[in-house]
Amino acid sequence: MSFSGHSELGAAENPKAYRKQEAIWELFTSECVYFLDQLMVLKEVFLTTLTDLQMRECLQDIDSWRLFANLNELCLVSFGFLTSFLRVIKEMWTNPDSCSTQSLLELLRKAFGESICHCLQKYCLNYSTAILYLDSLKLREDFGFFLKWCERNEQCRRLQLKDLLVAPLQRFTRYPLLLKNIGKKSCSEAEENTIQSIVDLIDRAIYDLEGKVKWLDNYQKVKQLKEALVWLPVWEQDKRAHVPENLKHLLKAVTLENLLSHRILLHDGKLVLIENAKMHEVYLFLFDQFLLITKIKRSKKKSGVVESNPLRLAAGQELEFLLQESCSLIVLDQPISLDRLQLKNIDQLNATASGLPNSFIVMHQNRYQQCIGVFILQAQTESVKKAWVSEIEDAISSLLKQDSQQPRLKNSFLESTQI
């Protein structure tokens, strides 16, 4: 079946109706590509092969749901949508009247309202877990052989499993654009409004998903961060705290890993710490209740990651790059509770006089308003500095507002040891 072959005469007779049919055909053909070249390749080349191997007692410990989630359901939903869509298209070509258009609108409303959005939401919620699980499985020799064998299949068209797993997310965000294109070329205002209502329905589903995915991403990021953080014992943090070697075993190593559990990471990034007239590369983590300053200790063993200028990586990629490079993040001093933190801006005049452009000061106070720590931090640009100052001020304001409405329990946050 060819759209161009069927509608050559229609283009001259009714250009607007032709453009509308063109937009409808684009939605249909792109769904065919998504179903055949992505979903079915994932299912037939990867999932079915894995299932067959597991029936033969190979790779039995691999959790197929963690990798592919509800892929079978996605295939069924997409196939059902295509089958109904093709029937409606044939109907529109045979009888191009308002009834066939109404059939299309009903199909779109039912498909996106009852199955497509819900099914894609379920898949997207598992995506971050699937990618992390895939990365961990790649370290295994047996799974590596399985992956290479599958990816060599000509149906993959040189795409890797990771490229195919992201396809449903990309398709989800493309639906509103394809439907808006049909709406713009509609023949009536009522038809355009109906399509817009379907677009709004998809947008709400994506917006609702973004909140859940953001929470999951935060959870996974904090989980990775725990492995990279190094909490120094007290005698290494404070040189005055001399502890004889034979007594160190009495002091339990406090890693404070639980401190990060259930925290929301609001902002993170690389800055420079001015300490003893020297500049140290540091990485800051702004959580919902405290600020964590860490020194970056680079591994001598380089990974295969290539990056010409890691200092100019996009926001959100800096931490990923450091973790890939097997860097350690040594916690400096102690977490600074936001209700004990004061910011001091270094204005242009003082910045020029001290030779510290784009800098600001973080002061750590105890409960008696005594300053127990000062950190002079320098950003790469003025805009990065302003972003940090704004994020910290907003976090402090939010925490104080929350405390005024519902005070935290005494045990909900670790008090400063220097009070």
TrEMBL record:
UniProt-listed InterPro entries: DBL_dom_sf, DH_dom, PH-like_dom_sf, PH_domain, PKHG5/7, SOS1_NGEF_PH
Gene Ontology molecular function: any one: guanyl-nucleotide exchange factor activity
Limits of the PH domain: 264-397
Signal peptide: none
CDD domains associated with the record: PH_PLEKHG7
Any matching Pfam family: RhoGEF
Gene3D superfamilies: Dbl homology (DH) domain, Pleckstrin-homology domain (PH domain)/Phosphotyrosine-binding domain (PTB)
Name listed for the protein in its UniProt record: Pleckstrin homology domain containing, family G (with RhoGef domain) member 7
Annotated ranges, domain DH: 19-212
GO biological process per UniProt: Rho protein signal transduction
